[in-house]
Structures are given as structure tokens and as C-alpha cells.
Write a structure and sequence with these properties.
Layout (H helix, E strand, L loop, with lengths): L2 E3 L1 H16 L18 E7 L4 E7 L7 H10 L21 H12 L19 E2 L5 E5 L4 H6 L6 H12 L8 E4 L13 H18 L3 E5 L1 H8 L5 H4 L3 E4 L14 E6 L2 H6 L4 H14 L11
Parallel strand pairs: 5-6, 5-7, 7-9
Antiparallel strand pairs: 1-2, 2-3, 4-6, 8-9
Bound molecules: uracil.
The site of uracil (URA) has 13 residues, from α5.
Length: about 300
């Protein structure tokens, strides 16, 4: 069904976004609704019959979550999609991925965007590894060791991830490793969906800078957040997904997304080592995709 965006609202919203962008603001953060109605930018997509198929309110300072952005992108034709403006991130004019990642890290700052900042985190765990990696691993969130050291996957689960990487015939330094949330959830609880949605835009930007050929989502939280879908690990594993980071474009016209595979989280494999064989099958699928030589023996 063809859908159009009210031209006046489109102009108003585009102007608002450009205004923020010009001030160097590229991300929009969630705050309580504005007191004054005039401060709220509203975009509506209506079908031919005039029925509103999507209404979006953007409060001053509100974050455009990946889910909201995806919903908008689906409802509004590409040529009318003013939210493309939001995808213009400051790192996109920078070709050196080290510098681009630094810009994203600086943009993240001493982040207070979600509750995790006041729930005992020691530091932000941004990501580590080869900024031009062909292979990227994405976990759930830092644990105690990662929080202490400021690097993802350095604890027991990290040791197993290192072994998994080694079993593939490569080293940890050759890949890029990051998490869905960059702050340790208290008591290592699973991050809430809102925390994932608030933090993952930064990960999406990291992915668009690194431009991997394959992303491996470690566990259900990473898989569900990246794919914006809900399914069991059994349903998610065993195949590749076409993946494009939500809400951001790479500045490389030759990179239009990559493959994404799902496997078990190393912490789960530590609890249930019988599943290591299944994880190894997932990694073999990834190796084949990357044209990597199979090692002599099953090594997990
Ligand atoms: N588990 C994760 O998901 N990420 C880490 O960095 C460490 C453990």
C-alpha cells in the first residue's frame, strides 16, 4: 500500500534533525515527555485512505532506537525517509577506521544514557581488536573481569572465546570483539531490552566502521538485538542472515552489510560443554564463508 508522509511534518522534522546535526548532535536520548506540546516533533505516515499507519513523536532529546528507526524506515518510502538524516554520523567522513572508532568512543563519552551507568559499572567497555577485521564477535555485556579491565571477553568466557578463535586458525588480534551493552549489568544480570536498544546504536556504528564480512552473535541477547527478532537459539542457529547495521550507513560504497551467524555464548558453553560440538559446527560454517582453511581436527 503506498504511503506518504505529511509534507509539513516531514519538513519540520527534517529541519529539527538538521538543526541538531549542525550542533554536532547525532544521537537522540530518551527523556520524559516534553511539558510543552510545541516541543514535540510528530511524524505521521498515512495511507491513501488517510488512515495513519504510523505516528512517531520525537521529544527533544529522545533517542531514535533501532526498532523505532526500522519501523519508520519500513513505513515511509525511501525517497521520503527524512530519518536518513539521522544516519549521517560524524565518523562517516573519516576513512581511517581507527580514527572513526575513536570518534564513536568520544561520542559515547562518560555515558549516562541508560540506568547501567549508576548501577555499579567501573568503566565503559567499548570494544577491542582489528579495526579492519573480516570477522566480528558480539557478546551480551561486560562481566566483572571486563568491567575491571575495560576490555570485552577477558574472563573465563573470554578464555573460551579465545580458544574458539584459535580453533578457527586465527588469533584474537585478527578479529573485532564488542558487546551489545557497554556497561556491566549488576550481578551479571541479562541486560534489559531498553538498555540494549539505548546502547546498540553505538555498536551498529562500530560495525559500519569495521565493515566485517561476518558477524557472529554470541548468544540470544546479541542475536535478538542485532536481528531485531525474537526466536529460540535453536531457531536462530545454523544459517546465515543478511545483516545491515540499523540506523547507519558505511562510508564505503562497496560495503552494504554482511552475513550474520548465531552461536552459543561461551558462558553457556562453560555451563553445558556438551554443546561445544554444535558451536563448532557454527564456526565451521563461518570459516567456510570466509574461505578459511579447516583445521586438522575438531578443536573446541
Ligand atoms: N560475556 C559477554 O557477553 N561479554 C563479555 O565481554 C564478557 C562476558
Amino acid at each position: 500500500m503506498p504511503r506518504t508522509l505529511d509534507p509539513e511534518l516531514r519538513r519540520a522534522l527534517a529541519a529539527r534533525i538538521r538543526y541538531y546535526n549542525e550542533m554536532g548532535i547525532y544521537d537522540f536520548y530518551r527523556r520524559p515527555p516534553a511539558e510543552h506540546a510545541e516541543d514535540v516533533a510528530t511524524a505521521m505516515a498515512v495511507d491513501e485512505a488517510g488512515t495513519t499507519v504510523l505516528e512517531l513523536k520525537l521529544y527533544p532529546g529522545e533517542e531514535m532506537s533501532p526498532r523505532k528507526a526500522a519501523a519508520v524506515a519500513r513505513a515511509i518510502p525511501v525517497e521520503e525517509n527524512i530519518f536518513e538524516a539521522i544516519a549521517l554520523k560524524p565518523e562517516q567522513s573519516v576513512s581511517d577506521p581507527v580514527k572513526a572508532l575513536k570518534i564513536i568512543r568520544e561520542d559515547l563519552g562518560d555515558c549516562t544514557r541508560c540506568v547501567l551507568h549508576k548501577q555499579g559499572r567501573k568503566q565503559i567497555v567499548f570494544g577491542v581488536g582489528n579495526p579492519k577485521a573480516e570477522l566480528m564477535f558480539v557478546g551480551e555485556g561486560p562481566g566483572a573481569d571486563e568491567d575491571a579491565q575495560g576490555e570485552p571477553f577477558v574472563g573465563r568466557a573470554g578464555q573460551l572465546l579465545n580458544n574458539m578463535i584459535k580453533a578457527m586458525g586465527i588469533s584474537r588480534e585478527q578479529v573485532y570483539i564488542a558487546n551489545i551493552v557497554k556497561c556491566r549489568p549488576p550481578g551479571n544480570r541479562t541486560p534489559e531490552r531498553e538498555e540494549c536498544e539505548t546502547c546498540s546504536p553505538f555498536l551498529m556504528r562500530q560495525i559500519a566502521v569495521v565493515k566485517p564480512k561476518v558477524v557472529v552473535a554470541l548468544g540470544a541477547v546479541a542475536a535478538k538485538t542485532l536481528l531485531a527478532m525474537s526466536a529460540s537459539m535453536m531457531q536462530l542457529r545454523g544459517r546465515f542472515y543478511e545483516f545491515r547495521p540499523t540506523g547507519v550507513h558505511s562510508n564505503d560504497p562497496n560495503w552494504d552489510g554482511c552475513k550474520l551467524a548465531v552461536t552459543y555464548h561461551p558462558a553457556f558453553l562453560l555451563r553445558d560443554p556438551r554443546q561445544k560440538g554444535e558451536a563448532w559446527k557454527d564456526l565451521q560454517m563461518v570459516m567456510k564463508e570466509l574461505g578459511m582453511k579447516a583445521p586438522a581436527k575438531d578443536a573446541l
